[in-house]
Amino acid sequence: MTASSQELHFADAGEAADLAAFLARLIHYDRAAAVRLQAGGGVLAVFGRPPSFEVLAIRTARLDAIVGTEATSGTSSASGTSSASGTSTVSGTSAGAAGGPGALDTTVSAGEFADALDTARAGRTADGPSQSHDRGLVVTVPQAVTGPPWAGVLPPRGGWRRVSGLPGVDEVRGAVAAAVAEFRARDTTLPEERRTRAERDRIGREIWTRTLGD
Predict the structure, then answer these.
(1) Count of alpha carbons within 13 angstroms of residue 151, beta-carbon side
(2) Whole-angstrom distance, CA of residue 124 vs CA of residue 133
């Protein structure tokens, strides 16, 4: 029997930590959330969709490599006056170009991917200061799952054009900072009996559904 898996070699453990935080937010909204992973050009793109919003959220992280591993095990037995059985395992590893198009394209459980990131980060911490020179992180890609309909139709990579009426980068950054500050202020003033997830989600939806620009 043959089983294969892939490992993502992140160029920066800090970017992997940011990705873990992104997955935690998705799982907060939906414990059964799925994400689509695509890699190319030395970058991993992770697509997710919070159920409270009609948008796709994207996070990226740089990759040093994508490594595929394959393990084969077999059992043989002979019967007669005596019997014997043995199991052998053969493993192979092939390093894929982190920059190769289509090097990785799969949909996985957000929870399982978050667990894989946490496991890799915990193992790196356990290695101690001697490993501090290594800025990267190696994470095993979970098994693929059947994703939701949106995962089958992602935004195009090319052909984008600027549309008038959209806010500029500085305006968006200012609006986001103001929204975060407003949420924190309103959360602080909530009485203890109303400090619930439902109430916080309601405030969040009210703030984040406001229109920017035209």
Answers:
(1) 22
(2) 11
Q: Where are the beta strands (DSSP E) in the chain?
A: 2-10, 34-40, 43-48, 57-78, 84-96, 104-109, 137-140
Full domain range(s) for residue 194? 169-208
Find out whether 23 and 142 touch, Cβ atoms under 8 Å.
Answer: no
Beta-bridge mates of residue 8: 66, 139
Position 113 in a domain = yes
Q: Is residue 159 part of a domain?
A: no
56 located within any domain? yes
Q: What is the DSSP string of 59-81?
A: EEEEEEEEEEEEEEEEEEEE-SS
**How far, rounded to the nearest angstrom, does the alpha carbon of residue 31 sit from its chain's CA centroid?**
14
Provide, for the chain, the percentages of residues in helix, strand and coil under a 3-state DSSP scheme, each rounded to the nearest 5.
35, 30, 35
Give the residue carrying structure tokens 């109430």.
199
**pTM, full prediction:** 0.67
Domain count, the chain: 2
Q: Which pLDDT tens digit goes with each residue over 52-88?
A: 777 899 999 999 999 876 555 554 444 433 333 333 3
Whether the Cβ atoms of residue 136 and residue 123 lie closer than 8 Å to each other: no
